[in-house]
Design a protein that fits this description.
It is globular and about 70 Å long. The longest helix is centred in the N-terminal third of the chain and has 30 residues. The chain has one domain: Hydantoin permease. It contains 20 helices and no strands.
């Protein structure tokens, strides 16, 4: 007989359309584990090497990443967590009160799908480890489609497990991260130490010389300077901090100071782990196969599983698998909340399983992981400006003379001021990037500020007296 399917709770109460009560508030330790696990995770095995393919210098990498990650922590602490502990609502319900049901539905759909694509990239990362015992062909930097039946089976199996965990709610996601993250950090460190030994690094000068003053980017990649590194590392999670998606997480926090726990993710994951993964790739590109590919004008593949296995063996493979899970779990959880806001009659568990299915399908296509730097920049640029609507409405509605949470109070389903502010900001700044050749992350903050300011201006003219 076939094994019984895992039981998913029919209803996980996540306070989707009401403030989180004080009885459900959580201390800072709950967030520490989640952020350390989510950001010292699967993406790091891909992003670290991609910095090397972009030709960064030692100064750009070390100092640029430190500053960019500091700005991200400050954004979470003083913007996201501050608003979250004031309103204690999900992003989606808070946005509905401002935008109206019809308009926020379109946003929720876009938000949920983009989160699913990001989670799909993490499933791809885990698959590169699970596939090694099956002699699976690894995806190349230029691959977009599945490369074989083994790849498809492995991705589907991983996606099913991740979806089940995410569907069990915030507590399960948080507990999983708390258990996994300390061990993963040790494996990242071990990979870095092994890579340093293999690269013959005996001093800080030797380490510095691995990157030196930078080099030409690999075929198909763009050159990253200091400001590319700073702004990309600040805004790679723009949707979550200045885009306010993590209202859904920090609404559980007892105090806004829990926002400081994001530093565990930024400096253990987005700093230490990126650099360790970058060193692994630096070691790999010294191999004969990689040098032959470079000589032929091709970029060597970025396959986290084989790189970690080469460094620390089975422990490296397990780390890559678990690392993919700890990022995909909360990402699918967020996507499930977005879809649940569209279909509130469905339980959160059911819509999270739907989100997991979409993420699993996305994971079949390696392009989301192999082009992760570009995808994350676009994802943050699209979603971040909507966060400005919430921030400006929360802090500046009174001084601007407009009604806060206008859609709810006016009983409307569509707030035109929001659409105009978002659409105009997106159109102007994306056009500058597309036609002017400006790096998209350079324009995320201007687009965010523009959207917030335009929202206040349009609201002033379009709001009716209540």
């Amino acid at each position: 007989m076939p094994p019984e399917a895992p039981v998913i709770p029919a209803e996980v109460h996540e306070y989707e359309r009401e403030p989180v009560p004080s009885s459900a508030w959580k201390g800072w330790k709950s967030f520490l584990g989640m952020y350390a696990g989510e950001h010292a995770a699967g993406t790091e095995f891909v992003i670290g090497p991609l910095f090397l393919t972009a030709g960064v210098s030692a100064f750009d990498l070390l100092v640029g990443l430190f500053l960019g990650n500091l700005l991200a922590v400050l954004s979470w602490r003083y913007i996201t967590a501050a608003v979250a502990t004031d309103v204690r609502l999900t992003l989606y319900y808070q946005l509905e009160k401002i935008c109206g049901r019809r308009l926020v539905t379109a946003y929720n759909l876009a938000n949920g799908i983009l989160f699913c694509f990001l989670a799909g990239a993490m499933i791809t990362v885990s698959a590169t480890a699970v596939g090694i015992p099956f002699d699976m062909e690894m995806p190349k930097l230029t691959d977009t489609m599945p490369n074989g039946i083994t790849w498809i089976v492995v991705v589907l199996a991983i996606g099913a497990v991740i979806s089940i965990i995410a569907a069990r709610g915030y507590d399960t996601v948080s507990k999983f991260a708390n258990i996994a993250s300390p061990w993963m950090v040790l494996i990242f460190l071990a990979c870095g130490v092994v890579a340093l030994k293999g690269l013959g690094v005996a001093s800080f000068a030797d380490f510095w010389n691995i990157f030196g003053e930078g080099r030409e980017p690999f075929p198909g990649q763009i050159k990253y300077t200091f400001w590319h590194v700073v702004l990309w590392s600040w805004f790679c999670n723009a949707a979550m901090h200045i885009g306010m998606s993590d209202l859904s997480v920090f609404r559980y926090a007892k105090k806004a100071s829990s926002g400081w726990t994001t530093a565990a993710g930024m400096y253990v994951g987005h700093y230490l782990a990126w650099i360790c993964a970058c060193l692994l790739y630096a070691l790999y590109i010294r191999t004969g196969d990689a040098q032959a590919m470079l000589a032929a004008g091709q970029a060597p593949p970025v396959a986290p599983g084989p790189m970690a296995y080469q460094a620390v063996g089975i422990a490296g493979l397990i780390c890559v698998v678990v690392a993919g899970w700890t990022t995909a779990n909360p990402t699918i959880y967020r996507a499930g909340l977005a879809f649940q806001a569209i279909a509130p009659k469905l339980s959160t568990a059911r819509v999270t399983m739907i989100a997991g299915a979409v993420a699993t399908v996305a994971g079949l296509f390696p392009a989301f992981a192999m082009q992760l730097l570009d995808f994350v920049a676009v994802y943050g640029f699209i979603l971040a400006p909507v966060g400005a609507i919430i921030v400006f409405d929360h802090y500046f509605a009174g001084s601007a003379g407009i009604v806060q949470n206008y859609a709810e109070k006016a009983g409307i389903n569509f707030n035109l001021a929001v659409l105009l502010a978002w659409g105009i900001s997106m159109a102007i700044f994306y056009s500058i990037s597309a036609f002017g050749g400006v790096f998209l992350s350079f324009l995320t903050l201007p687009a965010w500020l523009s959207c917030g300011a335009l929202y206040l201006v349009f609201s002033k003219f379009l709001q009716k007296k209540i």
